[in-house]
Design a protein that fits this description.
The protein is mostly beta strands and 201 residues long. Helix content is 14%, strand content 45%.
Length: 201
C-alpha cells in the first residue's frame, strides 16, 4: 500500500512540474538517455553556481596514500584511487573511489561522493555512500585560504561519528585531506585520525 502511495505521489508531482502529456507521444519517444549529463544541463533553466569552481582543485584522477590511526591502535596504510569529475553540467562534482586492501587493513571499499552548492544556506553540501554500508552527509563554508573543510555525520562499520575533511591542494598535482573525528555526544571535541596524500595520475 505504501509503495502505491509513493508511486502515486511521484506521478502527481511529475504532472504538476511537466504538465499533461500529449496522447500517444509517450510510447513513441522511447527511454531517454539518463546518463547524458551535458544534455541534462543544457535543458536546465538553473545556472551553474559560480561557487562550484572553488572545488576545481579536486577534479582529476588521483593515487592516494591513506594513513589512519585511532585511539592508539596500530597505524593502517592503504592505497586509494580517486576520480573526481563534474556532472550534470557542473551543478555537482562526483568522486568515485577504490580503496585497495592491505596487510594492515584488508578491507576493500568502493565509494561514491557528490559535492554541490546550497544557495539558500550559502554553503557546500556533500553526500557519501559505499559498498560497506558506509554513508553520511556534511557541509562546508566557502573555500577559505585554499581549504574546503567539510563537517558532517557519518556511519562506518556500524559506528556513527562526526567527521571533518580538510581538503586542500598544496601544489597543482597534489590533493591532501586531513581527517578528524569526534563522538556524536561531544561533536566539538575533534581529534585527528588520518591523512590522505594524493598525487595526480
Amino acid at each position: 500500500m505504501r509503495r502505491g502511495l509513493a508511486l502515486g505521489a511521484t506521478a502527481v508531482l511529475g504532472s504538476l512540474a511537466l504538465g499533461p502529456a500529449a496522447p500517444g507521444n509517450a510510447a513513441s519517444q522511447g527511454f531517454p538517455a539518463l546518463t547524458d549529463d551535458r544534455a541534462a544541463a543544457n535543458r536546465s533553466t538553473t545556472a551553474v553556481p559560480a561557487e562550484m569552481s572553488q572545488l576545481d582543485f579536486m577534479l582529476g584522477d588521483w593515487r592516494c596514500v591513506v594513513i589512519t590511526q585511532v585511539h592508539g591502535q596500530p597505524e593502517m596504510k592503504n592505497i586509494t584511487y580517486l576520480s573526481v569529475r563534474s556532472i550534470l553540467g557542473g551543478h555537482w562534482y562526483e568522486l568515485r573511489s577504490l580503496q585497495l586492501p592491505s596487510t594492515s587493513n584488508p578491507q576493500r571499499v568502493v565509494a561514491r561522493q557528490v559535492y554541490g552548492w546550497d544557495p539558500v544556506a550559502q554553503q557546500f553540501t556533500t553526500y557519501y555512500f559505499d559498498d560497506a554500508d558506509g554513508q553520511g552527509s556534511g557541509s562546508a563554508p566557502p573555500v577559505t585560504n585554499g581549504h574546503a573543510v567539510f563537517t558532517g555525520t557519518y556511519l562506518f562499520n556500524g559506528f556513527r561519528h562526526i567527521g571533518r575533511d580538510d581538503l586542500y591542494s598544496p601544489a597543482p598535482d597534489k590533493l591532501y585531506n586531513d581527517v578528524s573525528m569526534a563522538m556524536e555526544s561531544t561533536p566539538d571535541q575533534l581529534f585527528p585520525v588520518g591523512t590522505a596524500r594524493c598525487d595526480r595520475s
